[in-house]
Amino acid sequence: MKASFKNLSVLIAACMSLVLAAGCAGTGSNQTDGTKATNGAEVDGSAPLTLSLYSDRAWYGDWSGPGAKRIQAKTGIGFNVKKPVQDDGDGKDISLMIASNSLPDVLVVDAGNKMLQQLIDGNYLYSMDELIDQYAPKLRSVLDEQYGPELLTNFKEKDGKTYKLVSGYQTEKYLEEAKKNAGLAPVWLPQLIVRKDYYDEIGRPDTSSPEKYIAALEQMAKNHPDKIPYLGDKSQHTGNLSWFEPQFGIEPYYVTGDDVKNKIYDSKWKDMIKFGFELASKGLLTKESFVNTNDVTAQKVAAGDSIVWAYNSTAENSPAPKDNPDTKFEMLQPFSTYMAPTIPTGWLALVIPKSNKNPERTMKLLEYAASKEGQADFFFGAEGQGEADFKDLANGPHFYYDSSVPNDYFPQGKPTYTKDFSDALNKDWGGTWSQVGFGEPIVLLANWSVSNTVQWNPKDEKRVAYDKLMSPRMKFFPEFNFKIDSASEFGVIDAKLNSAREDYVTKLVFASSEAEFEATFNSFLKVAEQLGVAKLEAEYTRQYAEMKQKLGNS
Amino acid sequence: MHKTDTHHERKGRHWTTVFKSQLTLQMMILPSMIFLIIFAYIPIAGNVIAFQQFNLTTGFLKSPFIGLANFTEMFSDPTFYMAMRNTVILSLLNMVIVFPAPLLFALIINEIPFLRFRKFVQTSSYLPNFISFSMVASMWIFLLDPKGMVNQSMLLLNMIQHPIEFWTEPGLFRPLSIMISIWKGVGWGAIIYLAAISGINPDLYEAAKMDGAGRVKRIIHITLPSLIPLFSILFILNIGTLFSGNLDQSVLLGNSFNKETSYVIEYYSLQMGLELTRYSYATAVSFFQSTMAILLVLIANWFSGKVSGNRLF
Q: Rounded to two decimals, what is the model's pTM?
């Protein structure tokens, strides 16, 4: 009896150890070497193939919706998706994948993901040029002609090779199309949003300069002393008063001659901080805008607690504040100095690690995804015959070609949503997209000139007016696309400088007097010097010269 | 007598003989040992990157050694000292105020004569423990907002003339952090003490009652002394956290106004490691924390043994 008990215990312990060991073991599915994993059926392009995909975007889909199924039926390729619960632009997941040697077949990540460079420098990725030449030669001409040649020229690494395919990069071709279709200015540009009822009360004065805006806000605050005059959230104000930056036309870096300096030396930056100080000293800017999260701010705005709200042009579609259902929000006239700077880096980057189990079929899939046919399948859904052609959300049809409206990409006419699908989107935007299962959540490669066609409507007067107002205020700075490794000496200086600026901006805005403001500002500049800002600026200047030369030659 | 004999007998035997005689039990503990070795002991070797210029793509075997450079930088960074000071102050306050609170709460609950009411108090005090800290933070930010319930009530009662900016006043961060910690953890922390109280021999209370001891005297002379060993052990375990903790409060309730009191060492380490990808530097910071924690636990263990005779090891 004693012996059998002992044996049983040994057996249980052994089983528990096995379970533990099994739990620790990886599946090994991602470890396959691209050169040896392919078998005959996979190479001929007909056998079903499931690739693993990692995206650092929390909104990325799981490739199981109706849209993904249609693409899988057409190509034979599906994806096993791994994604984080929260966006991971810092690349924590990729670090772990590198450390555990478990990179997936494909990565679709934010173009600014910090670990992308490590993947390139560590020789973990296939060069796109080589893969295109070897497996998908048509892709080169599709990218050059339909996206813009910049995609394969502007992202070359030191070795002259391109390792990432970037979606949403503002190529010349895209900018032309966007201008033509009144789609250049994004709706999310930072704006000052006012309650119409309060603005009407004071006779809708001009707010196109800091002084005029302060005067108008003071008047509205006087009429409604129980309200918060101006309200935003901490991400918009802590560290840099970033919400006000475009209003003052501040460029990402301050260029004097050939030297590139940090923007803290730009007089416009000081003017902006002084503007914040003036607002705060008049009680028009409170500490709430530096403390509240966006949820808290949104709740206060919805409750009608604020007069001016830091948001964007879509606020006009927001529900009216609870205390006056008859009013609405509207965008104030931007300052005459308004300039929205963009350093074009693209939106998402697709890279193929050397662990990819079938580079040939992956490239064939990309060739299809990049084409007009692929873009239509990925972004427009199922094609129908006309406006009224619609069965259900899963099967569509979701769009048709409107032959009455000419289109640069589709000779059959402008891709247009079918009426019922469009109505469903207007009724419940998020819910409808999750049911149809195509679009951004399954994106591999996006040609914004094509994917936006269905959204652009140059006949929409409101939209045209917004684009007319804002697009001249947009400026692109490709020469500022600096690469500063956050773990390098420059990265450390940059981080310390940002931290110091975060501490000083609140001290400056809430200074008790103008003299204190000036003294604090000077002390901040001294701290910046001590932190080694000059060293960082020398690096900016070096990279700036390189970029200018590269862009001039491209 | 028999027990002592067995003890001496066991002491005299070779460890392999003892191990063999306990083979069944030793095998039962094996999976846990393997788990600990894999996930707790082997990773300790990773601390080597604190002395390297670690490169993720080459791994720690090929990363160059840079000696104590990361530690030198750490000890010359004023932000590190600010974070360290805040961590130690908050942890000391936690130890003095938050740590004994569950003991007091358990004593109070134990004295509630009405069983149903006692159960109600006990259950409702557990609930905050199950709410995630992000929810707790949002709730308290709302409650203590200038337009929140607390400020509005105080204004209505004429206790204040202007709303108090609870979350932007550096001096208020520590008291608020302590208050929230007590609110969230006191009920849950009291469970272990209530369990210990229920294990006290009721005859002792009966005898004390017969000797004329009142309720307070019974607490002082029976309940508290019975709980001291448990309290000491928990204290020794807790003292290791003196150089860590409070990350939730720091991240979710900290802001640029109260940073001088809210920014703690774990937040610093998190920013250095995950946001700036300075893995070597962040490891140096946590290596320092771990070393200090081990030292403190050893000292506390020795001190507890000297004073109360209760030692963890």
A: 0.79
